[in-house]
Structure formats: structure tokens, C-alpha cells
Amino acid sequence: MEKVFMKGNEAIAEAAIRAGCRFFAGYPITPQNEIPEYMSRRMPQPDVRGIYLQGESETASAAMLYGAGATGIRAMTSSSSCGIALMSEVIAWMAGACLPVVICNMARGGPGIGSIQPSQQDYFMATKASGNGGFRMLVFAPSTIQEAVDMMYRAFDLAQKYMNPVYILSDGFTGAMMEPVVLPEMRSEEFLAAERKKNEAWAATGRKGAARSHQIGAGQRPGFPRAPLEQKNKADWEMYESWKVNEVEYENYKIEDAELIITSYGVSARIARSAVDMLRKEGYKVGMIRPIKVHPFPEIAYEQLDYNKLRGILSVEMSIPPLFYYDVEAVVRKRTPIATCLRSGGEIIERSAIIEAAKKLYGDK
Amino acid sequence: MEKIYSRPIGLKKSINGYCPGCLHSAAGKLIMSVLEEFDLLERCTQVDGVGCSANNHTSMDVDSIGSPHGRPCAVASAVKRISPETVVYTYQGDGDLASIGLAETMMAANRGDNITVFFINNANYGMTGGQMAPTTLMDMKTSTTPYGRHAQEHGYPMHMCEVLNALTAPSYIARVTCIDAANVRKARAAVKEAFQHQLDGKGFSFVEFVSNCPTNWGLSPIESLKFIKEKMLPEYPLGEFRNR
Q1: Which of A16, A90, A117, B52 has the maximal Cβ count within 10 Å?
Q2: What pLDDT digit, counting tens, does each position of A278-290 carry?
Q3: What is the CATH superfamily name and number for domain B24-243?
Q4: Measured between CA atoms, how close is B40 to chain A, in angstroms?
């Protein structure tokens, strides 16, 4: 496959289109503007024939996505941090209504307007509470543009499979940089038409002779009669639990003989990987655990460690206070010391800082 | 014998969820009867707001999307653009359309999205117990204006037809009421006209129903109709504001 040199945001948008995304609604916010800009260019083209709609706000854009989801078309939105926060109302509705949509967060500094520079301060918002009512989503955390592209492509399939929103938690760093990527094949018109046809069993686009009218609404499973809310909550919980078996994804990097584990995700893990390589050259037995999806959290990766030979775990993220750290702490349960290496507010984590923190925790070789 | 009137087939034979005397059910019945006349029941999607307007979907037997509060026009815009062959309409109250969803309403109208919007103006938030709405009349007492609506504190009633009429894109704007038989006939004609605009691809069509809330107004159904005639209609004059 041919490699192309692309900016992260544009590669993500193109990957979504190739995955079959035919509706995009969004509102301008830095650092993700190239996604809606690219979509506005690409959607009307003859090989796509999709719809781009600029909402009057993030909330309205998410509501447009909700409407699109209710038609059974492959649809997405993107935004950044405080913009995603504005969407949280409708994200909860989309989870409540079991709509197969994709949401992409190119995160920036926070809280509030924060900064326009890249950050990982939305970890809790993405993995724990993207809206009211205690719903969960599959949350991908790409470490490279190639990974973001591959995740975008899979996200639409998973949204359709589970009838639940899928979330890409990326950052302004990955969106703004350029690197060579291999783009996936364009989904065929036949594939997309067949899925639309299948989704007609529940889509709210006119009854068209169906035995009963279709109702889409929060608290209601598409295509099924309204059931007590608790019953739906239980069914959702069952699905979230099934993800712990079927959807956990992580990467172990050089951990076989490691006495110190660096753990990180997304763009920080990219920098941490380089720190691991440098430390290895100096003779430190260091490895890395990297969650590829940050929800469901890959507890198994940490459970499999031999804590008798570990000197500690270094948790690395671009958030102060740390957020990812607490998921690590919850599974490690004081079996080894955990230290942190953090930057925040739009400051990029430095490899030298990770190396220094790792050496401090490692002690004598 | 010729049958000249019957329950619209789009209305389920279930309890509609509205208080006795509430004109929400009259508006719903008219919409269903026009959809039936146009043979659109099988190819329409209703987008509900939040509040009393959301009671609607329990009685209307058409495809429907329950929308987040205030967002029906955004939801409907997306549905219509994706599925232009579907007749898409929203059904919203005054809090939903003119307060929390004002941006969505105005921007869908300004884009000229080819949807139809039905707006039920009963001058208060009915479902939550009768709080002040943007359309509450001057001096009117509500559960959050216990001393009456006063200009200095609360501003003035919002006139949505007039506000929308300042935009270029909308193709049909009308205000109607269902307080008596003559007005019901006019209201039905407006609903029909609004759907015709959508079928003709003319863009945004809007029908405001000046309605009542006997429960929260503390009036009997009959008294509430008198209140509409004497108090609401001078503030919200009926008629076609635009038809092109």
C-alpha cells in the first residue's frame, strides 16, 4: 500500500470517509479545525456524496449527529475539550438512544477554555463521564497518526456492532503533526447501502410500511418497544462488562525482563517509547504498558506483571493533576511504588524528563 | 351515508397524556389529519422537543425522534438533509423553541432547512409546573414570577413569528389558534400550507399555535379559551406573516 504524507487531522477525516462516514456536523475550535474543513471539501465530491453541516454550536452539531444517527447513516463529529464538554448533553442522549455514531476529541488544555495547545486533561471526561446518566463508551487513544487512521476505520464498525457511540481520544499534537500514513480502502457503496438497508429496521426516516412506527429516544433501544429504563440500564451494563472480555486492547513494549514499567497512553506514550529505547541503551531494564483503548481499561496488562521483580511503575501523561494515573493505581493496588511524570496546560512532555524520572525510581542498576 | 369526520388514523387510541382542555391535543390532531390527507403517515418523521410537547409521541403513530431539550431543529435539519424524501417536522413548546433552543430555531430558519416547525405557545413551562417562559405575558403570574412578569426584571414577551420574519430564508410563517371552530379550520389550512411548502422544497415553514394551559393558568378549559381571546391574541396577533 502506498504511503502518503498527511497532517493528522486530515488523515483522520479521510480515514473516516473511507470507513463510510457520510455525515459530519461540527463547529470550529482549535486544534481540530482541519477536520471540519477537510470534511466540507470532501463530502460533496462524487466518490463520497455525503453531507457536511456546520452547526451553530457544538451542542447543535452534536444534535445534528444525533439526528444523523437516527437515520442509520455512518456519521461523526469532532471537537476539542471545551467543545466536547458542550456536546456532553447530546452524547448522553446518543448513548441513551443507542445510536452508532463516532465522536473525535482532539484534546487541548483545560479546564474551561484552557489553552489551544495539546493536552491529555480530558481522560476522566472521556472514560468516566462524557455526560449524565452513567453510560460508557469504547475509547480509543491513538499514539501515532497511523494508529488514529486505523482506529477511525474500526470505530464505525464497532459503533454499528454495539449500537453505542465510539470515542476517539486524541490530542492537538497528533492532529497538527504530519507523518507518512497508509490509508485504508474506501468502503464500497454496496457495503454502505446494505448497512443502511439493515438499519431501516429501526431508523426513524418514515414508517414505509413497517408493522409499527419507529421511535428513537434516550432510554430506548432502536427497533424495540419502550421498556422500563432500569431494564435498559442493566442491558447497557451487561454490554460494558462484555467489553472487558472482548474489547480490551493494549501494547506491551519490552516488558519481558523489565524491572521498571513506564505506563502511558496516546501521544505521551509515543514519547515514553522513545525514553524506553534510550534507557535500554544505557542498560536499564525498562519496558512500557500502553493502553490502546483507555476504556475498557486494560487491567489484565497490569495484573500479569511479576510484582516481586518490579522496582516500580512510572505513570506518564500530559495532565496535572494526573488522571490516567488513578486507573493504574486502582489496578496495581500498592503492590509496587508508582511515580508520575507529568506536564499540563498545553506543555509537551519531554523525553529527558521521563528518562530522569525513570532513573530516579529505578535506583542503582 | 358519507363519512365526513373521524379520528385521524395516525392518532393512537391511547390516552394522549395531556390535561383536560389542553389544546396540545387539538394541534396534534390537526397535524395527523393533514399528514393523512397528504398520505404522508408512512414517510414522515416527527422530532419532539422536551416538555409537554414530548407527550405527543405516545399518541402519534409515526416515526419519531425524541430530541434533547431545544435541539429539535438541529436534529430535524440533519434528518432532512440525509433523507430528503422524508417529510420532517418538529413539535415544540415555547421553552424548548424560544428559550433553550432559540439558537437552533433561528439557525435552522436562517439556513432555510426544508423542515416544518410547529410551535405551541402557551406562555409558560407547562410540564415543570408553570414557570415563566419567553412568551409569558406582561404582568402574568407564573410559579417563577409570583409577583407578575415585569419589564425591568424579565423583559418582554418573545414574538417568534415576527422574529423569524426578519430572516430572508423562511418560506412560510403563520400564527394560528384552536379556540373555536372557525380558527381550527384556519389552523388546519396553515398546517396544510406548511407541509405543502416542504413538499415543494421551498425551505423552512413555521406554524405557531397560540395555545392554553388550563392547569397552570388556574383556569377552567372554557375560561382558558377566553383568556387566549382576550389576553394572548392582542399580544400575539394571528395571521400569515409570510407565504411565498
Answers
A1: A90
A2: 999 999 999 999 9
A3: Thiamin diphosphate (ThDP)-binding fold, Pyr/PP domains (3.40.50.970)
A4: 9
